[in-house]
Amino acid sequence: MGNTKTIKFSALIEIIGINPFVYLPENVLNFIFLEAGESKGKIPVKIKIEGHEFPQTLIKYSGHWRLYLNTPMRKAAKKDVGDNADFEIAFDKVKREIPMHSKLLKALQENEEARKIFDNLRPSLQHEIIRYLSFLKTEESVERNVTKAIGFLLGQERFIGRDKP
């Protein structure tokens, strides 16, 4: 993680709903808060799980700070819920913005009702949709999922594990 200050810890991978996560020890949280200059909102971090590096966001939910671990992270580390894993974490100073995929932008321009619904979603759900589409590998999967996203916005189908907004 370069010249960035890091701290190491081990933690048990737990799950809340469908989301695997780890709690960070208090000394690790204090280290991140000090580096970030804040202890509120979403805090961008870089993590290594079992030596594999990923960008991630530290989030406070239901009164507890959690580090969520997506499938690619757990697969790379060969770890799953119930396993202990070794971590290294650092505050990430790099601003993170994921641009909206051009096909989603076009679909929203072509469907005014879906665009209005999208524009009124909470920012975290907008970001989740944009982020999901940005990680797709093939144009075919992008097109299929943009169609699903529009259907989701219009209340016609599930998308990203969610019922209609």
Topology:
Layout: E1 7-12, E2 14-16, E3 19-23, H1 26-36, E4 43-49, E5 52-61, E6 64-68, H2 71-77, E7 84-91, H3 102-110, H4 112-120, H5 123-134, H6 139-153
Antiparallel strand pairs: 1-7, 2-3, 3-6, 4-5, 4-7, 5-6
Structure, described:
The mean pLDDT is 92. The radius of gyration is 18 Å and the shape is elongated. With 165 residues, it is of the alpha+beta class. The protein contains six helices and seven strands, in the order βββαβββαβαααα. The protein has a seven-stranded antiparallel β-sheet with strand order 1-7-4-5-6-3-2. The longest helix has 15 residues, at 139-153.
Rg, rounded, reads 18 Å
The residue fraction in helices comes out at 25-40%
Beta-strand residue fraction = 25-35%
Strand order of the largest sheet: 1-7-4-5-6-3-2
Mean pLDDT across the residues is 92
Q: What general form does the structure show?
A: elongated
Give the helices and strands as they follow along the chain.
Answer: EEEHEEEHEHHHH
Please summarize the sheet with the most strands.
Answer: 7 strands, antiparallel
Task: Provide the structure class.
Answer: alpha+beta
Number of DSSP helical runs: 6
Q: Quick one: how many beta strands?
A: 7
Uncertain parts: none
- The N- to C-terminal Cα distance equals 38 Å
